[in-house]
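re the bet — no i am not wrong, look at it urself. input seq straight from the record:
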Amino acid sequence: MSPELSTYKDVYRYNDLLTPLNLTHLTIMKEGVDEFLKQLQTINRSALSRREKMDFDVLNDLLQTFSESYKWFEYAPVNRLNFLEGPQIYTDSYTSNIPFNTRGDFENFLSRLEQYPRQIHEIIDNFKVAVRTGHTLHNVSIVRVPSQIDGIITSNPEQFSFFAPFNNTLEIITTIPQTVKNDLRQRARSYITTIMVSFRTLRDYIQEDYLPYTRSEWGVGSWGDEAFYQACLKWHLSVDMTPQDVHDEGLREVERITTAMEEIMQKIGFNGSIREFFAIAKRNNNYTKDTADEILELYQRMSEDIIWPKLSRAFKDIPDRKVRILPMPYDGPGGSYWAGSEDGTRQGTFYANVYRPQETLTFNMMALLLHETIPGHHLQVIYSQTSSVKNYRKGITGGTYSNFPVAFPIYTAYVEGWGLYAEYLGEEMNLYTDKYDMMGRYEAENFRACRLVVDTGLHMFNWTRERAVTYLMDHTAYGRAEAETEIDRYITWPGQACAYKIGEILIKQIRANAEKQLGTDFDVREFHSLVLSSGQVPLHLLQRTVEEWVQSVKNARQETHVTPLTCSTDRPRLISLLLLICLILTTKR
C-alpha cells in the first residue's frame, strides 16, 4: 500500500514502486482492510494469551479506524498537498533512506523517477474533486506552495536533489561499468526534466484553478459536517472526547500553567507579562549563545553529562543506542527527531535549528531536548525497536497528516503525549536546575495547552485566525510571525495539535491510578518499561495494559502474604505452637 514507507522501514522489495495517490487507491485499500477484518473475526479472541489479545486488539483498532473513516474519502484526502506536506517539501530528504549500492538499486530509483510525474498529476486530479465538492483548503494552507515549488524547480536536472546519488555515490561503485553509469545518468536527467515540467504544471494549476476556490472560513466545520472534525480528533487522540471536552481541558491547563509562570516571575522580581519576560531574556547575553556550534555543543553536553547519568533512576534495561545531534538542514521548528533503523545501523538523530542562534534561549533547550531525544522520542523509538512486539506495533503504518482520518492511525496521542510527558519527567529527575529553566519548561507546556483551545476554537467554535493568533501570543513567548505560522498549521491539520497535551494528561492519569492502587509497591521503572515496550498503541489499550499489570502486582503481593508457617517471619508463632503441643502432651501423660 505504501512502497515509500516500506523503504523507510528498511523493507526494500518495493523500491521500484510509488504509492498511488488517487481516490481509487483508497477504495482498493478499503476493500483489502475489510477483508482482513473478516479474517480477524474468525479468530477466537478468548482462546488467545494475554499478549496475543493485545496484538489482536491493536490490529483490530488499526483496521477498524481506517474502515470507519473511509466515508470521509472526499474530505481531507482530496487535498494531498499543503505548505506543510507534499512533494515540494520532501525533495531534499527523498533519497535519504534509499540504498544505492548496486546497479539494481539505481534501476529501482529510476523506476520511481519515471513514475513521479504520475503522482503529481494525481494530486491535481484530487484537487479538482476538492473544488467540485467544496472541500478545499483555506488559502493560508496552500498560498505558500507555488513559491515553495519555485524554490525547487531548476533548468539543470543535475542541480536537482534527485540527481545527487548519480554523482559521487554512483562513481565510487566499481562493479558497475562506466558505460552503464553513463546510461543511468542520462536516464536520470531525462526523468528529472519531466519531473520539472510536472512541478510547473502543479504550480500553475494551484495558482490559476485552485486558489480562487479555497474555502472562506477558517475551520473544517465550514465543509458542512461537524462530525468530520470529531473524526479527526478521535483519529489523533485514540479516545472519545468531544471538541468541548478538549477545549475546556485546554482552558483549565492554560490557567494552571500561567499561574505557575506568574508565581516564578514574581519570585524573580519581574512584573511584566510572559511575552515581555521572554523578549527581555532574548536580549540578555546570559541566556543566549553567539554561534550555531555553541548551541550544538550545549545540546551535546546536556545530553551526555546531565540527562544520561540520571536516566537509570526512572528507566531500566535502556537500549544501548545513543542519539546523534546535528544542525537542522533548513529553517524550521526548534528541533525535530528522525528515528534510526531497526537494526541500529542508522542512528536516531536530533536535528537542532541553529539558523538564528542568538534567538535560542538556553533555558528553553532542556525541555526540547527531553521531548525529542531522551527520555522522549528517541528512547520511545529504541525501546519499541528492540522489543518483541509485532512489527505493526513498532511504528507508523502509513498515511500522511493531510490524508487523515482516512489512514491507518499513528496514535499521535501516545507518541507526542510521551514526548510531553518526558518534559514533565525532567522535574522528577531534577533536570531543571533553576527558576529560568522552569520558565522554559512551563512555556513549552503552556504552548501545547494553548493548542487545545485554539484548534477546537478554529474548527468547532468559529474562532477567527486573528483571535487564535492573539490568544497564542498572550500566553506564550511567540511573536506574531511564529504564532501565525503555528495557527496556519492548526488550520491545515485539524485535531493533530491536540494530541500532545491530551496524550500527556492521559499518560499521567494512567500512572497516577497505578500509583494509587499499588502504593509502595509501585515501581516507576517498571511502569515506564511497560509503557515504552508496548509499541505505538491507542491510549485506551495502554490503560488496559497498565491495569492488567497493576492486578498482576497485586496478585503477587497477596501470594507473598499467604506464606507457610516455616517462613522466618512466622517463627515466633511456630515456636509458641510447638510449646503448646508439648504442654498438652505432658499434661496427658
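see?? The beta strands are 324-327, 335-338, 349-352. told u. also The first strand starts at residue 324 and ends at 327. so pay up
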